[in-house]
Amino acid sequence: MKIVMHCVYYPPEVGGLESHVHYLGRALVERGHRVDVVTSRSMPGTAAYEVRDGVHVWRTWFPGKSTLGWAAHAVGSVRRTLQVSLGADILHAQALQSVPPLHLARGYRGAPLVVTWHTSHFLRLAKRAGWRTLLSRMVRTVDKNLAASREIADVAESLAPGTSVEAVTNGVETSIFRRVSPSLEPTTGSRRRIVVPRRLFEKNGVEYAVRAVPLIAREVDVEVLVVGDGPERARLERLAGELGVLDRVRFLGARSHDEMPALLSSAELAVFPSLMEATSVAALECMACEVPVAASRVGGLPEIVDDEVGGLFAPASPEDLAHCVTVLLRRTDLTEVGAVARRRVVDQWSNARLAERHLEIYRELVQRRGTAGGR
């Protein structure tokens, strides 16, 4: 099959959605299919066209990371999308902005259109009256709706009653994300190490992890690695200083996917203090590296995290976060908890399983199209 995906961002951009599309595309290529991705030139120096791990990547004009920029990218990518979709068997929109150009491609090329609804951004827009009408039309008019979490699927179905939306949790490339030699030196004495692999945006709640550090430190000698960057960084660094924990909180900035397994393997526990969240690829990557996860009880996180692989805490509560982390760090079987976490990811959320489910969906749509065409 020839599969054409559209996604506003793609590696070397770093993020859960970018990682999902890249590894899914690579897995489909490994199974003998051609995959083309139309995306944006959001990073300076990236090629307009390249083959990356067997995936044909086409980058189009991108004016900036804003609502206007995303809309302009969608319009500006139409011509390339129509060119690339010639002979396509499946069209797959991986972002909200991807739906209009692929909708046009479906009209011209006739290939079935799949949409995966990702991220908490979809949930926010679904609460706005004007956007609800537009999203409802989108959900109703595509051939197959997928969602990255049950919560997103439920909201999408509420927008278009009678339309089925399948929840398909994003996968992890478990051959890459696994326990490896740590890239950081071990802690000394009684100090324990936590990692917070979050981009520094308000919705990711890193502020509450920083506020929890003094509370945790009363019970456990701890240091926190914050891996990620964003507009909140300066404010969070000031907050750490005001709380007197700059010696315990290290802001490492953004790191590449290649660096992440060794960084994650340098920690005993990962913390996800999100205020809104779909199913977090980053949390699954930690689990695949045998790192237990403490996560806020929001969005799709409770679908992947429980007491067997870590713990849950109330969002926006430094006190509950600190309590959860302290309880976990006092467990004597934390290594075994990490091993259970990896087994769960391999069994349920590996990229291999994700690719096979996508192929089942694609084949069913292609077959249905062929049957309809033969009538």
Relative strand content: 15-25%
How many β-strands, per DSSP?
A: 14
Q: What structural class should be given to the helix and strand makeup?
A: alpha/beta
Q: What's the shape?
A: globular
Which strand order do you get reading across the main beta sheet? Answer: 3-4-2-1-5-6-7-8
* CATH homologous superfamily title of the largest domain: Glycogen Phosphorylase B
Annotation field: number of helices = 14
Number of domains: 2
- Give the N-to-C terminal Cα separation: 23 Å
Q: Helix coverage percent of residues?
A: 40-55%
CATH structural class of the largest domain = Alpha Beta
Mean pLDDT: 94
Largest sheet: 8 strands, mixed
Structure description:
The longest helix is centred in the last third of the chain and has 23 residues. 42% of the residues lie in helices and 18% in strands. The chain has 375 residues and is an alpha/beta fold. It contains 14 helices and 14 strands. Strand 10, helix 9 and strand 11 form a beta-alpha-beta unit. Strands 3-4-2-1-5-6-7-8 form an eight-stranded mixed β-sheet. The relative contact order is 0.12. The two termini are 23 Å apart.
Descriptive terms for the model:
single chain, 375 residues, alpha/beta, Rossmann fold, 2 domains, 14 helices, 42% helix
Per-chain topology:
Blueprint: E1 2-6, H1 16-30, E2 34-40, E3 49-52, E4 55-60, H2 67-76, H3 78-84, E5 90-93, H4 99-109, E6 113-117, H5 119-125, H6 129-141, E7 144-147, H7 150-159, E8 165-167, E9 192-196, H8 206-217, E10 222-227, H9 233-242, E11 249-253, H10 260-264, E12 269-272, H11 281-288, E13 293-296, E14 310-313, H12 318-329, H13 334-348, H14 351-373
Helix pairs in contact: 1-14, 8-12
